[in-house]
Write a structure and sequence with these properties.
Keywords: Dioxygenase, Oxidoreductase. The protein is built from 9 helices and 9 strands. With 273 residues, it is of the alpha+beta class. The strands form 2 sheets. The protein has a 6-stranded antiparallel sheet. Strands 6-5-8 form a 3-stranded antiparallel sheet, with no helix packed on it. Helix 1 packs parallel to helix 7. The longest helix has 16 residues. The termini are far apart. The model has no long low-confidence stretch (mean pLDDT 94). The structure holds 2-oxoglutaric acid (AKG) and fe (ii) ion. The site of fe (ii) ion has 3 residues, from loops.
């Protein structure tokens, strides 16, 4: 990255959006010439890298993935979410074949991973325009903190508020590792490509973004978002887990929404007189 290409860090409002939705979308972040090159690169297949590889080892300077990761908006989002020097968990090229006749069941990639104070991100890069019939990734906003068994998730069909990705070429989406998602059926005549890299943080995920707007009322508004599939009482579970994550990310142990966590953490130690 040259000096003129400093990473563009996320604001607190956008971080709060990620914490509520479990994803963050950067539309057309990658330039057209890079997207054209990507199709050839992905078609050839991308050999795996060892778990825990450092980015410069996995993707040497000048390589296609490295240039993708050096785009200021991509670099800034990654740094804001998992910090400097994350390691590569794995990567994969995900192809939805033309008229393949089936979809991937809804799933979380790491449903056993119930950390409340850390998370991995999955970068998903779409080098082509993805139209509604091309099998864009389906995801369920706000599902990342719901703990279920992996195959149970696959039994759910068409949750209210689910989102089927339609995006311009060069879009990059960052997913929290728990988000429910799945590649959809490709009903078009075109191959749909997607390149995914999962990153593990190597530092504590605390205030890694541009925190200058931390007091903006839109932060709490974002964190209070509810989604159509939330049932009123159990939907509080999502808000509760979200508060724990936001407390951990900011270090502000007093942050709460509707006092849910405050109530649950009330364990007075003093004996009655
Ligand atoms: O192909 C897709 O859209 C989704 C693939 C997938 O589930 C993944 O990358 O974890
Ligand atoms: Fe997946």
């Amino acid at each position: 990255m040259t000096k003129s290409q400093q990473p563009t860090l996320l604001s607190s409002v956008r971080m709060a959006h990620f914490v509520a939705h479990g994803s963050l979308r950067l539309d057309a972040a990658v330039p057209a010439e890079t997207n054209a090159e990507a199709i050839e690169f992905l078609r050839r297949g991308v050999p795996g890298v060892p778990f825990g590889s450092k980015v410069p080892d996995a993707y040497p300077e000048g390589s296609f993935p490295r240039r993708l990761l050096d785009i200021p908006a991509v670099a800034g989002a990654l740094r804001s979410l998992v910090g400097p020097d994350p390691t590569v968990d794995h990567h994969a090229v995900h192809i939805r074949e033309p008229r393949e006749g089936q979809a991937q069941p809804l799933h979380g990639d790491a449903i056993i991973d119930v950390r409340t104070d850390a998370f991995d991100v999955q970068l998903m890069y779409y080098p082509q325009d993805v139209t509604l019939d091309m099998g864009g990734t389906l995801s369920v906003p706000g599902s990342h903190l719901r703990r279920t068994n992996e195959s149970d998730t696959g039994r759910y069909q068409n949750l209210l508020g689910q989102s089927r990705l339609v995006c311009p070429a060069g879009t990059v989406v960052f997913l929290h590792h728990g988000l429910w998602h799945g590649g959809r059926r490709n009903d078009s005549d075109e191959v749909r490509y997607m390149f995914k890299i999962r990153f593990n943080p190597t530092v504590r995920q605390r205030r890694l973004w541009d925190t200058s707007d931390l007091g903006d009322p839109r932060v709490t508004e974002e964190l209070s978002t509810t989604f159509p599939w939330y049932e009123p009482a159990t939907g509080r579970l999502e808000l509760y887990n979200r508060v724990l994550l936001w407390r951990s990310l900011t270090g502000d142990a007093s942050f709460d929404l509707e006092r849910w966590v405050t109530r649950v953490s009330n364990r007075p130690q003093e004996s009655a007189a």
